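User: Batch of two.

Assistant: Item 1 of 2:
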Amino acid sequence: MTDEGERPKPCEKPPAREITSEELLRGQSELLIRHGEELYRLKLTRNQKLILQK
């Protein structure tokens, strides 16, 4: 039993992992990502934008 005013702490999620696009692409302009049975393509454009295509 807790004292009045004390509440059990909710389960906290760890912070999301952060990675740079440079780390992902490793000097390439395209990366293939398998998610389950699907294959996705992450592309870096000439304007330095990222596009994710199925």
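Item 2 of 2:
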Amino acid sequence: MHRPFLCVIFLTSLPACSDYGVDRIDDEPPGAGDRVLQVLPELIDFGTVAAGTVAVDSFTISSIGAGAVQLEPLHVQGSGTFTIVNGPLPSSLAAGASVEVEVAYEPATGDDQANVIVASNATVQQIPVDLFGVGVMPDLVFDPQLLSLRSYDGNPVYASFVARNAGVVDLVVDSWVQQGENFEISTDLPATLGPGEESVVDVTWYPEVEGTELGYFWAASNDPDGNEVATLQGYYQLPCLGLHEAFTRGYADITSTAAGITVTHVGEDLDVCIDRWYVYVSDQTQDAGAGDPLFIEADIYGEGGSILLTKGDSVTFDYASPSVPAWWCVEETQLTATAYSFDFTGAQVPPRLLDTMLGGGIDPNTAVWKDIRDNPMMIVGRQRGWATTVADGSTAVRVEATNIGRKAGSAVVYETIPAGMEASGFSPEPFDEVVGDDGSVTYAWQVELEGAVDTDSDTQTIYDTATLGYNLSISEQACSVRSRTPEPVVQWDDASGVTRQAMGSPLIIECW
């Protein structure tokens, strides 16, 4: 007897998934064979669209079967930058009918993805329409964003920066405004700049006073980030560094030669000016006063000096020369040699000595030695000629008064602090202070200094030095890239009772 063979086949349907977890449903409800929907296109790529603008595209739903199709309301899954803009769909589509659906894309920035689900009672109950777009924007940038204009002589300075569209769609610069009374702007803006295009903004600065002046340039545009700002920084810098500042900052090196003293410019970008006669004290025995016999008195902090050193330059002061940069001994027993280094405090040669050095005669140095041997001879300098600080911060200042004469003497040292700066933490305390009409304060110290002691010709002369210390702070209002204190002054009476004085170098302060 034969039994019939029974074959049972189990079919498992594996639905395909879209990027957003939406299944395309192929199960046919009763009578669905006649209901067929077609959606074209099934992917809309808006490409790149400027942020803040709206792009619109569409897809079409068509009933291509023999029967009417019931439609469910459309909805968007994914990024909220996509929306359906036309009215509600009809509840059904007759055979052969179609409807267009418009989708708007209003991006911010970056990539966006979503899909629209077309749901119905057709053979395929859900059909996703994938949506893609990239939001882009115009991007206004200033290059450089900080424009530095430096004047070394007080004449107008010219510089420029560019306004560039770093975005990928058109940039519309609507307007601009400038702040800073001494800045002048020349530009083709307002304008429309395509991607990568730029417009030059020319700036002229007319410096009036030493220091820093700030200005600003604002531009309004369709850049979603808002207004762009460029900072204009005018810096009226002195034409060159005084020797003490240069020595402190490492721009100047001072060494001895077989018969002279050499100053070498070892810095980079700034020149060094020497138009004062300074006292150079060696680490052994070649102490001297040196300068240019032909110099014309000038203010090196505004007009430049008679000796100008640029990078790599040097000047050698020759012994007792009447016509070229020269030096005279300020110690009677000394050994002129090479390889000496110097402790330079910016102390200027006292005018009494300078008159003797420049007075001519057969042997002016003999007269110099006599002045030093018979009198107290004071000089005043600083341990450093340049310092940096911040607004309301402080920096330590040390003033040094030294007696290079062989007679003991009493002296008064004066230090003036400009308005906007404040001195505190004195060591020792000054015995007097006087407030000036300009808001400055002058402090005075009394010092008693022994006479210098001569030694063997190959060893250092012994000098008596008084160190006067304090802390200097600068208010936020007075803080500038470059400011200065006046030169310190020392005053004393010589052996004849005549009051003498000498000066040092100012302290240059950079405040940030």
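The chain is about 5% helix and 45% strand.
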